[in-house]
Amino acid sequence: MLDYVGLEADLGEEERLIRDTAREFVDERVRPDIGDHFQAGTFPTELIEEMGEMGFYAPNLDGYGLANVSETAYGILMQELEACDSGLRSMASVQGALVMYPIHAYGSDDQKERWLPALGEGEAVGCFGLTEPDHGSNPAAMETTARRDGDAYVLDGSKTWITNAPIADVAVVWARDESGGRGDAGNSDRSDDAPVRGFLVETDRDGVTTNEIDDKLSLRASVTGEISLQGVRVPETNVLPGVSGMKGPLSCLTQARFGIAWGAVGAARDCFEQARAYAADRDQFGGPIARFQLQQEKLAEMATQITTAQLLAYRLAELKERGDLTPQHVSMAKRNNVRTARDQSRVAREMLGGNGITTDYSPMRHMANMETVYTYEGTHDIHTLVLGEDLTGIAAYE
Ligand SMILES: Cc1cc2nc3c(=O)[nH]c(=O)nc-3n(C[C@H](O)[C@H](O)[C@H](O)COP(=O)(O)OP(=O)(O)OC[C@H]3O[C@@H](n4cnc5c(N)ncnc54)[C@H](O)[C@@H]3O)c2cc1C
After folding, report:
1. Does one domain contain both 208 and 332?
2. Which EC number applies (predicted)?
């Protein structure tokens, strides 16, 4: 397994254990069928509880039966899951970083008691509803509303491209609370009288429908859907009490993007390993193609890019551990590491010749998945603008 500058030699016992457990789980339980799931457009839902039993959901959080492992251990877990498929890592990322994290960070004691153990064990599935049909890169312009009615809120709006929505028990829905009367919210989050709030919406409530988006050509081994909310009543106790404004959803995305920065390294590494093994095995012109300088250049470049991405991911975990990680650091790593995986999966596919376009080999599946990973959780362009603003002090979004 590519670890060119020996980063894994410095791992602690817990981190090695998580790495080995995740690798074994993936090899035995997921890898044999993942190509079939990708072709069928299905997620292996029978593994959701098993992943919970293995401690794959939010193991970096504490309390409520959660493991409180190091950020490096969490990152390694994401890396090993995505080395199999981005759909598998997305399952763990959404459940852990986008659903359990906001409940853990901003939820009431009752909300934590009710949801964290169930989500952690995989007995319940969660989803994160931020994106809307007309508002993706600029979620602050969201149109989904919540209005106070007695001791309840009434939600109206629609969310789309929501991972796990069709199989979720609970959705974390971000909506503008217009109970104070809607001001001129415009495209920003300036309005104080319609702040963005998080609502825990059980998906079996009247007025909630979740349709599956089934024509994807990327992230096929993952369930994606829409959430329609029509006059959905939720008790006021379902509001996340600890946060108001875009800080709520954006802070969750920082957690999830940290996992993506690590996960992308796993996908790229898997492509590299497949290409290296294939090059050693495949004979043309009287010997293995690995003896050709053209193929060696591809492997050398791939290994260098992956190692650079690995270093960034490890450093990110150190910064997160000591509380110095900024959203801009995460933007740089998400942007760089996903681009690396996207580019290198294509090179790996090329090295596999015609065989490389089948589901028998992983690079083309990873390559298709990377189109989603490059786009979700902030597109590559948006992270470029985040860095541009941080480096110049000038925002260039509008
Ligand atoms: C498979 C999948 C799963 C997803 N899961 C979830 C989920 O669980 N929850 C959730 O809330 N969302 C989810 N998303 C949505 C995802 O986060 C959005 O697709 C993403 O934020 C981009 O929004 P958009 O698709 O509306 O594209 P747009 O915002 O319309 O962007 C279109 C293009 O314009 C570019 N662009 C936009 N603004 C600018 C600008 N200011 N300057 C330069 N270029 C710009 C973008 O980079 C992009 O190339 C998922 C998406 C996919 C594909």
Report:
1. no
2. 1.3.8.6
